[in-house]
Model the fold of this input.
Amino acid sequence: MTPPNPVPSTEFLELYRAGLNSAVELMKASLENAERLSQQQLSSVREALEEHVRSVEALGKARSLEDLVALQQKMAGAQLERVMGYWSSVCQAAGQNQTEALGRVQQQISRSRDLFADTYALTARATEEAATIAAAKASPRPVAKEKEAPPPPAPAPKRGSQGQSMHR
Done:
């Protein structure tokens, strides 16, 4: 009896490992993206704080109510631009993160598909081999038929016996 082929179980183990590795890669990418987004947010807060300091200094130098209103309008426009820039960069970063994650998922799906195809082919081949072996064991072995011996000849009638009297 041939031992079962260990290759399909090995293939499943490889598929499992590939899945785990992909999960780790995806977590690393998510962490890197979160770090990048945090750095971007901290940078934006720093810039906003610096702009606020400049605005307070500029407001302190205002000589009239008209100067104050003009400075506030100018600051409001600059703040609106900064807010829009911030949110567009956040959306852009989120889009890049999703694109990167989808790329990794597609790579994993491609690897998994290839591994499944290989595993299927190996399993199909192992199944065929097992069926062939099982069929060979289940079928009776052909026994070579011996030539049948001709039936023994009938005993010849004895002379002087009843057989002779019948022929007369």
Q: What stands out?
A: Helices lie at 7-60, 65-138, 162-167. The two ends are 72 Å apart (CA to CA). The chain has three helices and no strands.
